[in-house]
Amino acid sequence: MLNVFQPALGEEELAAVAEAFASNWVGYGSRAARFEAEFADHVGVPGENMIFINSATSGLFLAMELVGLGPGDEVVLPSQAFVANANAVLAAGARPVFCDVDPHTLNPSAADVERVLGPRTKAVMVLHYGGYPGEIAEIAEVCRRRGVPLVEDAACAPASAVAGRSCGSFGDLAVWSFDSRKIITTGDGGMLYVRDPALARRANRLAYHGLEDRSSFTTAARVSSRWWDLHVDEPGRRLIGNDMTAAIGSVQLRRLPGFVRRRREIAERYDELLHDVDGVRLPPPLPAGHISSYYFYWVQMAAAIRDEVAEDLLKADVYTTFRYAPLHHVPLFGSADLPGTEEASRTTLLLPLHQGLSDDDVRLVTGRLREAVESRLAARRAGATGGSRG
Ligand SMILES: Cc1ncc(COP(=O)(O)O)c(C=O)c1O
């Protein structure tokens, strides 16, 4: 079975874990601090504002807390988002308000976001569908103009950028994910970026029980007496990552450019091999100056055959899927009228895309997709013709 997502871990990651293991310092320590600095450098932001956490979801929940939400407050986000995005809003006591997306890019435009902003909007949260940056610069500008904080979910976009500026650095807060299906993985893990230095210090405290001082995490040296005393001003959680996973993360981050190069090659090969399949629409071209991480490769087809094609491919050992089932279909999160999202969710299918795919795998996927689409469309046409004859 060809998977849609797959990690790429090897000897180097294993050696890095072995080194952490041998040091006997496996909790948050110097390796985690180094990984934060490396990732911040990669994104182009100060290291003090980056926190290595145990998942992007933890980061989204903390981000909503940092924004300071309460009953009656609203957070604008696309319905075409991950379940954690809406959960984080609800958990903070606010209400998600969904904006629509472009049915081809599955990203919201700045106009989509602006259309649903209201007097109760306390934050905007957007992601980068499949690693495509989308109109993030324009959305950041809308938020700046309206004085609303922007939370950027860059879970799928570790190498994405617009005009040389990394995704994740447009927002006031941002998260990345290193779970096992992401482009770089630490098993579980993520990063939280907080632009404002004072808010970043607060985020650091809230990420570890509300405690002020984490210096003892990276050194055995004690600098004050009675270091065991507690200084807690507000209740925190326990969201920080550890040195074992950070050791893996540093290696994965070094390998990221190679991963994205291979993913791009595969996406281009899909484009070449699928451009002439009748009834299949390929992902949109990237606008000038945009760089994708190529997390998803998606095709679109008539809604009537999408699920059948997915089943045919599964029987042919090619796993496909759809991200993200619309959040406004979940009664807990509320409802909305979103034609672009409806269309995208009925027509879109993600093909396998990971750095472990060979050229033969790519040919196999495209061959089987072509067969499935052609035979399902032919069956529909035959059915329609038969029906018209009565
Ligand atoms: C857009 C998006 N945000 C957040 C997450 C959550 O990431 P994590 O598993 O690290 O909590 C995911 C995971 O699939 C995601 O796709």
Write up this protein:
This protein is an alpha/beta fold and 390 residues long. The protein folds into two domains: 11-252, Aspartate Aminotransferase, domain 2 (3-Layer(aba) Sandwich); 257-389, Aspartate Aminotransferase, domain 1, CATH 3.90.1150. 41% of the residues lie in helices and 13% in strands. The protein is built from eleven helices and twelve strands. It has helices at 11-23, 30-43, 56-67, 83-91, 110-116, 136-146, 197-206, 243-274, 303-315, 339-347, 359-389; strands spanning 50-53, 74-78, 95-99, 121-127, 150-153, 161-162, 165-166, 173-177, 190-194, 290-291, 297-300, 348-351. The strands form three sheets. Strands 1-9-8-5-4-2-3 form a seven-stranded mixed sheet, sandwiched between helices. Helix 1 (11-23) packs antiparallel against helix 8 and helix 2 packs parallel to helix 8. The radius of gyration is 22 Å and the shape is globular. Pyridoxal-5'-phosphate (PLP) is lined by residues 55-57, 82, 84, 127, 153, 155-156, 177, 179, 190. Residues 55-57, 82, 84, 127, 153, 155-156, 177, 179, 190 line the site of pyridoxal-5'-phosphate.
Categorize the overall geometry: globular
Q: Please tell me the total number of domains.
A: 2
Mean pLDDT across all residues, rounded?
96
Characterize the quaternary organization of these chains. Answer: single chain
User: Describe the biggest sheet?
Assistant: 7 strands, mixed
Beta-strand residue percentage: 5-15%
Number of β-strand runs? 12
**CATH-defined topology of the largest domain:** Aspartate Aminotransferase, domain 2
List low-confidence stretches: none
Strand order of the largest sheet: 1-9-8-5-4-2-3
CATH class division of the largest domain: Alpha Beta
Radius of gyration: 22 Å
Order of helices and strands: HHEHEHEHEHEEEEEHHEEHHEH
Straight-line N-to-C gap: 42 Å
Hetero groups bound?
pyridoxal-5'-phosphate
